Amino acid sequence: MSRKNNKKRGNMAEEEKKEVEETPVEEKPEEAGQAVENDETEALRSRVKELEDKVAELNDRILRDAAETENYKKRLRQDKENAVKYANESLIRDLLDPLDNFSRAIEAAEKSQDVETIKKGVEMVESQLKTVLSTNWGLEQFSPDGQDFDPSEMEACMMKEEEGLDKEKVLQVFMKGYKLHGKVLRSAKVVVGKPKKN
Length: 198
Prior knowledge:
Elements (H helix, E strand, L loop, with lengths): L2 H20 L6 H57 L3 H23 L3 H23 L1 E4 L11 E9 L6 E7 L1 E4 L2 E4 L1 E8 L3
Helix pairs in contact: 3-4
């Protein structure tokens, strides 16, 4: 053989070699399936990790919300207890001045024999007390002497038959009644006169 033919064959061998290198290697079906399976497994692992993180985040949020709710309930309980405990604080504060004036009246009574002065002092304290309770708290005193008997505002402690009456009337008030913002707080205790039977 000539050199030329050898060269030709060498060139052909190189070209075939190149073609073989450039030709993609066909994967066996088993290897291809395994690669797809690996990709799917990796995707599933990634999704599981993502969902686990989400669950952890939601659990953390639930725990925080539960703690906040419990703290809110405790605050409400404490506020309610304080509201009940100090509900009458303003009323008590308003009664302190009349209370001090009663103490002064007692001290004055011990030092003085002037009954009229003591009486005036006590009347002033009573007036101050009524004014505070009426103005600041809506307390109203009522004395139904001579009025028609009304069982919704009065309590009959005694009944007397009286001439000249056409219906039941209050003859005497034993104890005055009180209303708080128009609602009867304490009924007036009264003697009721009723028409005499003929």
